[in-house]
Amino acid sequence: MKNSFNTFFLYILIGLISTEFLFSESPLSERYHTYEEIDSILHVWDDQFGEYGSMSSPYPNSGTIYKLIEIGTSELEEMPFWAVKLSFNADVDEDQPRVLILGQCHAEEILGVEISMELIYRFLHPEEFPSDFQTLAGILYSSEVWIVPTYNPEGLEVVHGYEENGEWIQDVSYRKNKMDANHNGVFDYDHLNGYGNDIDGVDLNRNYGLNWIFGDEFGETDSGCPSNPSYVSNFDYYRGEAPFSESEVVAIKNLVETYDFLLSIAYHSSRSGCVAERVIYSSLWPGGKISPDYQVIQPLGQQIAELTLVEFGDGNYHFAASGSMKGNAHDWTYSQAGCIQYLIEVGTEDMQPDAEMIENTIERNLPGAYYLMKRAAGINYPTGPDKYQVTGIVSDSMTGMPLEGVDVVIHQMDGGILAPRLTDDFGRYRRLLYLDSFDITFSKHGYYDFEYSDLIPSADIVSEINILLEPKPEYEVIINIDVPANHSDEILLKMSNEYFNHEIEVYPGSNVLSIPEGEYNFTILSNDIFPYVEDIAINSNSEFLISLDWYDYLFLDEFDDLNKWDIVLGDWHSDDGRLKSQYSLTYPDFTPLGPIEINSNEEIYSNIDNAVLVFDMKYELEWDNDTLFVDIVNSQGSSRVLSFSNQNWVDSTYYKSVNLDVNSNNVISLGIMSDITINYRGISMDALKLLYNPDYSCYRGDLNHDGDIIVTDIVALLNIILDNQIASGFQLCSGDYNIDDNLDILDIVGIVNQIIGD
Question: Rounded to whole angstroms, how far apart are CA atoms 591 and 584?
Fold first, then answer.
């Protein structure tokens, strides 16, 4: 057994030495915890209260109450940072609601470190706070509290100061991490001119994925507000090179996605004073567009604010819905991870007050923190929040085993901006509610949906609704696949529906699959093969014969220009080989973009009715409100082929089977419809293809399979003949121009003659 007391005093000695050194040149109060002190103290507490500690818990029959977890390292210097898990039996993963406290994100906003460290201390030493003992014990008995004192150790070190190569480095106004933003290999910061002008670093609270694009670009100037118009800051709000580009933010993302937190607080301080002493929550965006959980989120935020007294004078903190839309943590954790997070701006413009005010700020912020924790834990003694919470375990009705990944939709609190709310590895779901009647749907691939109606939650009792889902029968599905001669490439089968998206490799011949009853989209893909795209109902044992063959083009555009299109409306244009929906960053308000239609010279006339439309693109639209549409227009009228109303700003390929009007002209038309507020990046399309399965085996001479026979096809064939390139099945077919089962110089001559028109 370790000698915890000796270790404790050793760490204290180390801390005192480091503190004396650091503050020999620092203007900050010695009350503030340096990175080294946080490291030392957290490990001392681990020795005392962790799994292998020698000290007993201050709570009767609690088991281990402290677990220290390294959750990540900083972007540049790989400095570790930690989360502390506080709970009865903290060394065991238990089925309990979880709360997350983030102490410090922005470097100079160090009051959050002090609040979070004090919270840990009080949970570990409740006997020193007898008036809070019942609250502290109740929270740890009924829930897990996770606390991250800092996830910006690099920035924290700059604020406190450190010596490097004989030079004292310190900037008490520094905000970001130390990412080399201008890529010159030097840490560029400005400690002389106050806020801003620190070229390097990324604002970690602008680096989250939701609405990241609206954050500041590199070098952008950020100014103040009506109450402080003189505030100007260059560089300080830089969003980073991409969403989640910074390791610190990735660590928080992974933590949040792993542990299914119900509620959270992120502590900040407002150096501009524009949002000082405020509780900010998600969200109220332009046009009165509120978060689907607003009736839960707003009252809880208001209550936290009312429990938190201001620094000077009478009154309490303000409360306000977020309207920032700039890659913030609280918006991302809510919409994408199902965790309601409050951004609390503690203190005034004096973000680093003296020791006395530090203690005062901590004391004033603790009641709000405790209230939030009790709301998550579902406890309200001796006083506290109404419970209004529904929870339960979803299990398999046949086996009784809990089901992870069940989609739980509360219809009165649902919206496209929300990622699916799924049961955890205990099969558990939890949602905070308000006084009303609610309808809930439980859905999972391979199971029949379950509808629960008219739930009225209680202020006094957490509603426990356990659900049994009935598994659907599984059927044997045999897929027999034929491929053209010489084809040897991988064949992928993609099966998808509303709750399921799966990709497997299949093979020529017989493939036997076990598939639950349901409606599926089957898409079978392989290089140079005409895609098989069908909607199939599986309701019995089935067998399918699918004959794959090479494809050819009815239409192809890789958008080097827009010569094939007529722009009916909008600023559609070609930009570096991509079709863009507008010149500006975002599409305009309440204005149709398009349609944009292929022109009369490109109209598709075909005696083949079955074709597949292929889009290589990324898109970003306002959920539930704005729509990208794709139509086929012909003599029969206009038919909607595809529509998108969400976001996937990652290059992806989309396949859609379309029916053409035989022996008439067919026109592809696309556009965007938007409402009056909140616009996004629209679409960026790399290629649009309309493919069909021709009567002939392949297009002779088109080795690159791009719809044209040009010099690059000759080069490809020559490389194959000289054994510099392995031929694909399609190239073996298309390269045999004279159809003599050989690839040789005669085929090159034939292709050359075709190119020159001889």
Answer: 14
